């Protein structure tokens, strides 16, 4: 008889019985709060069409999820065998039952990982699956999930409401016409789904297809871009359009958080070299640093919250990038320095309370040394939650232990799920809420805070901080 999926009520809480009792009491007060999802990558198309179908279980849970196929690839399973589309025209497995069987045969690889935790929650709570996924249960569980996906209750809009999502932000290219968001706004469905302005493909001169992206921005804005100033005008034009459709934030990814203000002549010289395909080696980093300064200035003027996600070496595996393209599980963290790199931006704008700059990190050594002191001083700076490789129970506990003493929880922004995998959203929030109350219960037991403080802090970490920080 296969084992059942077990999700104990006190899962993830520390073994001290007094701490566990307090954590359970705190969790009971926050577990049913609405979900604030201010940063993520869910495709808005699934909500714009009220009859949208997720497709097969493999379509939903395997093929688009780099957290899943990254682990399987690390054990020698080709991405093509998992149905991941190839951009070079190569063949991939099209039998979704075979893809699911391969996944189930290797499901043990996820034991003890955040992905394993999320998947257990999704299978048991979201889809009602009782048996553990394994070789022998693969096809029956496939049938069970497929049957549910065919019902109205498992359409995206119905699941959105069942998850109690109060607001969900997508992440969108600056040239995106946002047709899906317009359709959502005009549909009469009252859910709040908003875009987020992401200009990386334009301001990072070394972005893939940069010139094509620039032309798309020109077309979307109606502004011919031939200089840094016309580029800034086009970006301001698009920011205003995003705001009309509900955007409250921007998102920026860069290899480093380097910022520096270029002279008008320097910026133009770099931009002209890029236009002619002659950019020098350091042109991209210098121009990105300059544009981050411009984006901070724009955020002060238009009120959009500014998020910065540095420290990921994108597409580290050339073979996978050439065959499968972007976002295929081969982005690797790098050491990151914030104090000196952000000083030009913070000296110019960091004392202005109209700017809200949310910093994220993949380099945990910066938590106590740089990020907490920066957030604990500059009015403009807040810290985002543990991100990507650290979006785990242990990653959250390290974050609480290293950041909160210096920054305090009110210089952080609660949680965001940052996922493409829509069914995993409640699972991710559940881990954060459990980690938060476990940490708070420890503070109560050791006498750092009282019970009333813990209750207010639990609610803030679960709901209020994200809502306030992202102006939702």
Structure description:
The chain is α/β, with parallel strands linked by helices and 472 residues long. The chain has 2 domains: 17-52 and 154-469, Metal-dependent hydrolases (TIM Barrel, Alpha-Beta Barrel); 53-153, uronate isomerase, domain 2, chain A (Orthogonal Bundle), CATH 1.10.2020.10. It has 20 helices and 11 strands. The chain has helices at 17-30, 45-48, 57-61, 66-74, 96-105, 114-126, 138-149, 156-162, 179-187, 200-203, 210-221, 228-244, 264-275, 283-302, 318-324, 343-349, 366-375, 393-407, 425-445, 451-469; strands at residues 35-37, 165-169, 172-173, 193-194, 197-198, 249-254, 305-310, 312-313, 332-333, 357-359, 381-383. The strands form 4 sheets. The chain has a 4-stranded parallel β-sheet with strand order 6-7-10-11, covered by helices on one side. A 3-stranded parallel β-sheet has the order 1-2-4. The radius of gyration is 23 Å and the shape is globular. The protein starts with 16 loop residues before the first helix and ends with a helix. The relative contact order is 0.14.
């Amino acid at each position: 008889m296969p084992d059942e999926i077990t999700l104990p009520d006190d899962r993830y809480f520390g073994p001290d019985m007094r701490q566990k009792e307090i954590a359970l009491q705190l969790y009971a007060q926050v577990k049913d709060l609405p979900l604030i999802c201010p940063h993520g990558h869910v495709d808005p198309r699934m909500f714009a069409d009220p009859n949208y179908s997720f497709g097969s279980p493999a379509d939903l849970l395997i093929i688009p999820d780099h957290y899943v196929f990254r682990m399987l690839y690390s054990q020698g399973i080709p991405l093509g065998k998992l149905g991941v589309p190839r951009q070079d025209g190569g063949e991939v497995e099209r039998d979704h039952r075979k893809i699911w069987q391969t996944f189930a045969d290797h499901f043990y690889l996820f034991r003890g990982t955040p992905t394993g935790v999320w998947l257990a929650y999704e299978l048991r709570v979201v889809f009602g699956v009782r048996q553990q996924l394994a070789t022998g249960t693969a096809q029956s569980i496939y049938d069970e999930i497929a049957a549910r996906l065919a019902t109205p209750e498992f359409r995206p809009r119905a699941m959105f409401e069942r998850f109690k999502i109060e607001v969900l932000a997508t992440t969108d290219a600056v040239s995106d016409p946002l047709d899906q968001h317009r359709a959502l706004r005009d549909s009469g469905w009252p859910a709040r789904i908003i875009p987020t302005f992401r200009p990386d493909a334009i301001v990072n001169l070394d972005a893939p297809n940069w010139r094509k992206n620039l032309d798309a921005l020109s077309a979307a804005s109606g502004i011919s871009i031939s200089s840094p100033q016309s580029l800034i005008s086009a970006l301001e034009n698009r920011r205003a359009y995003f705001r009309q459709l509900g955007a409250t934030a921007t998102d920026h990814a860069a290899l480093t958080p380097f910022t520096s203000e270029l002279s008008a002549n320097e910026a133009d010289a770099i931009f002209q070299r890029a236009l002619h395909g002659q950019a020098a080696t350091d042109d991209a980093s210098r121009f990105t640093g300059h544009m981050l300064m411009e984006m901070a200035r724009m955020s002060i003027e238009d009120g959009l919250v500014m998020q910065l996600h540095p420290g990921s070496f994108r597409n580290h595996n050339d073979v996978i990038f050439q065959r499968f393209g972007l976002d295929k599980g081969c982005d690797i963290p790098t050491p990151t320095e914030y104090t000196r790199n952000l000083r030009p931006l913070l000296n110019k704008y960091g004392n202005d309370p109209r700017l809200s700059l949310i910093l994220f990190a993949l380099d945990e050594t910066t938590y106590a040394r740089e990020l907490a002191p920066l957030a604990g001083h500059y009015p403009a700076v807040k810290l985002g939650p543990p991100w990507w490789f650290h979006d785990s129970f242990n990653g959250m506990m390290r974050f609480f232990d290293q950041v909160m003493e210096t920054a305090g929880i009110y210089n952080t922004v609660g949680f965001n799920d940052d996922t493409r995998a829509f069914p995993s959203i409640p699972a991710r929030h559940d881990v954060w809420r459990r980690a938060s109350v476990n940490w708070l219960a420890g503070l109560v037991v050791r006498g750092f805070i009282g019970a009333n403080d813990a209750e207010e802090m639990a609610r803030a970490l679960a709901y209020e901080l994200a809502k306030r920080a992202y102006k939702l």
